Amino acid sequence: MRRITRGLKSIGDSLTFVGHFAVLMPLLLYLAFKILVTIVYINTPTEPFTSFWAIFVEGLNGKDLAHYPDFLINIGTILSRLDFLFDVFILVVAEAMTIMLVFSLYRHSSIKLGEAFSGSVSKYPKLVAGAIFSSIFLFIAMSLPTLIIKGSLFTSSTKGALVSGIAGLLIQPLIIFIIPFIVLKNASPLSAFSKSVRMGLKNYIEGLTIVTVPFLISLPITLLEMKTTVIAFRLSPEFLIQLQFASELIEFISLYVLIGGTTILFSESIGGNEKRS
């Protein structure tokens, strides 16, 4: 219980900084970018645009996707698959900036938004490599259950997705420190990966607590996104647009909780537990 409390306290400490608008700015800009992409998608339901969007859905071509309501039914699938590229090449900068800003406030030091941006950009190749390592490791962890366990457990795609999600949740504490090590300790991607695993094992319960909170915050939206066809025909296809915007807002909240809590735990784990009074 003490270790769970420590994880929750890390999140709580990070939330005390949300009054500093600069701390939220990187993730707010990323949220704005995601909303813009969604708006672009909604307003391009015809060829040749649908041929591009269809790349991200197996067995569907641009002509099929252009049919109503298929275009809206697939909005979550298509944009979530684009998220991999966004996470690796764009979100990683916002994440690095947020880490620097939270860490600075927790250590009583001062860093401006512009300095956080330039510091993140200077480490961009390392950050991208670290994000790729993290994504690959997480993808493997989430894919293994469906490869190892077959049969009645996965007769439902929803059950399979939930089991994969839990597997990812259990492995995530080992990799959440990769970006902090790169940003705050200037570690190489490989070194950051190995150090993150070691720190994650040492602080596993705390880390699991930190990743579980945003998981639970996102879970209701995630479950709804698994039932897009049912929603489209029982409610309205247009409801899926509102669901997508809600998903992006929840992602913003979850990201800050995860990044902020991880940064505080990282700071404490490397011996920097000073914080403002």
Write structural notes for this entry:
Helix content is 77%, strand content 0%. By secondary structure, it is mainly α. The chain has a domain at 1-123 and 203-271. The longest helix has 32 residues, at 75-106. Mean pLDDT is 92; it is low at 272-277.
Q: How much beta, percentage-wise? A: under 5%
Overall geometric form? globular
Query: Radius of gyration, Cα only, in angstroms?
Result: 20 Å
Give the number of helices.
Answer: 14
Helix/strand order: HHHHHHHHHHHHHH
In whole angstroms, the N-to-C terminal distance is 25 Å
Tell me roughly what share of residues is in helical segments. Answer: over 70%
Mean pLDDT, rounded to whole units? 92
Could you name the ranges where pLDDT drops below 50 across 5 or more consecutive residues? 272-277
Number of DSSP E strands = 0
Given helix and strand content, the structural type is mainly alpha
The biggest beta sheet reads: none
Task: List the main descriptive attributes of the protein structure presented here.
14 helices; mainly alpha; single chain; disordered C terminus
